[in-house]
Amino acid sequence: MGRGYKSYLVFFQCPAQVVDTGARRFALGEGIYVYVGSCGASCIRRILRHLERPQTKRWHIDYLNCAPLYAVVTKRSEEEVAACLSQLCPHVPGFGSTDDPANPSHLFQCRLADAIQCV
């Protein structure tokens, strides 16, 4: 993967569920969701972790009971992408955004056709 990629989006097909991380609970309706994350130095490993659904639960995203669909990488920051998506798509309040207080969430109920406007 070339240099300059700052964030990624992973899309999931989710059934209705309550995600319980032990510290918080999040209610999701059925649909397609997109999670926004930061690439950092290990972008491919992070994306693969989400696509392969890890046994060890570390982040909010690890607790989703959803089928991964596909991923997109972008040169925009995760904060920029999350801010854009929050204007276009419903979000799950507080999900995956504890290190980004400027945005309400990093998980959005959003189709690729809508999300592509933010990458």
Whole-number mean pLDDT: 92
Report how far the terminal alpha carbons are from each other.
16 Å
- Widest beta sheet: strand line-up: 5-1-4-6
Parts with pLDDT < 50 across at least 5 consecutive residues: none
> What's the number of helices?
3
Helix content: 10-25%
The total count of strands amounts to: 6
Strand count, sense and barrel status of the largest sheet are: 4 strands, antiparallel
Order of helices and strands: EEEEHEHEH
Classify the beta-strand content into a percent band. 25-35%
Task: Describe the fold and architecture.
This protein has 119 residues and is of the alpha+beta class. The model has no long low-confidence stretch (mean pLDDT 92). A four-stranded antiparallel sheet has the order 5-1-4-6. The protein contains three helices and six strands; from the N terminus they run E-E-E-E-H-E-H-E-H. The longest helix has 11 residues.
